[in-house]
Amino acid sequence: MNYSAQGFKSYVVPDSARPGFTPILRNLAFYKDSMLNVYPELETIYDLFWGSVEQVPDRDFIGHRPYDPETGNFLPYVFQTYKQVGERVTNASAGFIKAMLMLSKTEQEKQKVLARKWPIAIYSINRPEWKIADKACVTQSLYSVALYDTLGYDSMLYILDHCEAPMVVCSLDKIPKIMLNIGKLPRLKIIVCMDSLKDSQHSRSVPSPFNTNSIRILREWTNHCSIKLYDMEEIEELGKSSGIPHFPPKPEDIYTVLYTSGTTGNPKGVVSTHSNYVHSVKFGSIGRLDRTNTQVVISYLPLAHTYGRQTENLNVFAYGKIGYFCGDISKILEDTRALQPTSFPGIPRLLSRFYDEIRKKTIDAPGITGKIYRKAVAEKLAKFKKTGNPRDEFWDPTLFKPIKSMISDRLTAAGSGSASIEPKVLDFLRVVFAIDMIEGFGMTETSAVGLKQVPGDPSSGNIGTPLPGIEIRLKDVPEMNYLSTDTPCARGELLIRSKTIFREYLKEPEQTREVMLEGNWFATGDIARINEDGSISIIDRKKSIFKLSQGEYLAPERLENTLSKHPLVSQSFVYGRSTKSYPVGVIVPDPLTFVPWATKIVGNKTFEELVKDPKVVSEVLKEIQAYSRRSKMNGFEILRNIHLEHIPFDADNNQLLTPTLKLRRFDAAKYYNDILENLYEE
C-alpha cells in the first residue's frame, strides 16, 4: 500500500510498521504530542462541569418540556441555568452521602461511606435529573453505573448486583421493576425517585400509570423490605442542611461504569476514569468546537451509552444548552422543532427513517414535484462531491429550507455514530439538509472517540481519520484473509491507542487481557481497511458479534443455540448488518419434524419443495418468532425474515462448518450473500 500518496489524509508515523501490523496512523493536523497540551486546567469531569458553572452561571443549561395532564400535551421547554443546576448538584451530592451515613450502623460502615469511590446506579430515560444525579456523583468522587431496559430485565438485575451499588436513582416507573426482585439485591439500601412522591405534585410528572394510591403502596413495599425511599427533593433538602462539602475526584478515579452487550454471556462493565473522559472531550473538541457561540443539542441518545453521555459532556465543555426529549422517540421531531438545536447527534436507524420519509415527499414524489426535486438533488450532489459544500444559494431557499426546518431552522451540523450508515443515506441527507453531516467511530472502551470525518469531507462509506490524540494501526487476521500487506488497501483488525482507553472490564481480568495488547493497544474486534486516500472504513467483525443500526450488539451464536432447541430447527445461521435494525437468518429444518408439520399446511410435497413454499416459510417464521419471545429474546434479537435451506451446513461439501463442526460465519455470509440481500429487501 502507498502510504506516501499525495493527499493521504492520515499522518504515518515513520518507521512504525512491524511484521503483521500496518504503520501507526495519527491525525494529520495534530500529530505531535506537543499539539495536544490543551486546556491543562481540565483533569476531571468535575473540573469540566464546575468550570462551566463558574464561567457561564446565568446561561441556560438543561431543559425539558413539562407534561400537561389536562391537555395530554408537552409544553414549551423550561430551562435551568448553570448556576441553578450547580446548586442542585451540590445539594444532591451531599444528600447522597448523608443518606448513606444515616444508615451506617458501625464506625467501619461510616468510614466506608466517607471514603467515597462507591457506585450509584441511575435508571431512567434521559431527563434533567439524570444529569443532576451523574454530576452529583462526580462532585463527591462517587461513580455512576447506568441501567437501561434494552438489555432485558434479567440483565438489569445482573448489572445492579454485579456493580454492588447501594443506591439507585431512578424514575418512578422503575421502582416496581427493582422491588420485584429485591431479594436478589442484598447490597441495595436506598432508592431515590426522580419524580416527586408528594401527592400534590405527582400529577405534573411525565405520564405514567401510577397514581396517589400507587405511591402509598410503593412506600409500604419499600419500607417492608427495609429499603429507604426518597425523592430528589428530599435528597436535595437533606444535603442542603448537612454541611457536607465537595469531595473532588482525582484523574485516575473511576468516572463511570457502562455495561455493554457485546459478549455471548452477561453484559461487561466498562470501567472508565475521569482522565479517560476528559481526554475524550479534549481530543474530540480540538479544532472542532467553538466555545464562543452557544451550542444547543437535543438529548435523546441513551445516557447509558457512551455516545449519548459524551455528546452531553462535549456540550458542557462548549458552555452549551441541552434539551431533553419528551421520552417518546416518535415525537423527536416535535421536540427538535420546539428546542431548535444547532447540532443533531444521529444514529443510522433514525437517520434512515428521515431518509425514507423525505424521499417520499421529494425525489419519489409523483409528477412535476418529484422531477424538480430529482434535478435539484442531483445537481447538489454533483457539486458537493466536487467542493465538499452541501449548500446552494439557489436550491436551498426555494426547496430545501422547509426540509431542514423539520428538525431545526438553526441546524448547522449533524453526526452519525454507533454503527455504520449507508453512503446513499448520508449523502442524500447532507444535501437536503444543507449541513455538514459527518460519520465517526468510537466505542464504550474508547470513551466514545476514535475516528471521525472532518467538516467539508464529501466522501462517504468511511469513518474518517484518527482524531487528535488517537493512534491506530491494523493487525493481521490471517484466518479471515485480512492482511496488512493486502493491495491496494491494507486490511486487518483495528487497534487503538490513546489516553481515552478504558481501565478494565469490572471483575473480568481475563476478558480485559484479551483486548489489551502489548504496547497498550486496544483490540476493537472490528475489521478495518485503510483506504487509498488515508481514510478508514469498517468492513467486518472479527468476533461473531455484530452491532445493529440502533447501536445494540447481537451475539448470533447465543441466538443460534436458542433456535437449535426448537423441534423444527436442525441448523441456523443468524446474520445482521450495522446498517439494519434487525437480524435475518438461514434455517435448515429438521426433516423428521418439519416435513409432517409442513405437509399439514400445504399438503404432500418433498422436503425441497416444502422449504421453497412461501406459505411454509411464512409459518416457520411466525413459529420461530413466537418461540424467540417465549425464550425471552429481546425485540432486536428476533429474526424478521428467514430463508429455509434443505442442504445442511457441513465441512465437506459446502464447507460452511469447521472440522470441529463450528459454523464458518464469514464463509456463510459469502455463500448466502444474494439470499441475505433479498431477505433485507423483501
UniProtKB/TrEMBL annotation:
It comes from the Eukaryota. Residues 80-506 form the AMP-dependent synthetase/ligase domain. Pfam families: AMP-binding. Keywords: ATP-binding, Nucleotide-binding. One of its GO terms (cellular component) is membrane. GO terms for molecular function: ATP binding; long-chain fatty acid-CoA ligase activity. This is AMP-dependent synthetase/ligase domain-containing protein. It comes from Smittium megazygosporum. The lineage of its organism: Eukaryota, Fungi, Fungi incertae sedis, Zoopagomycota, Kickxellomycotina.
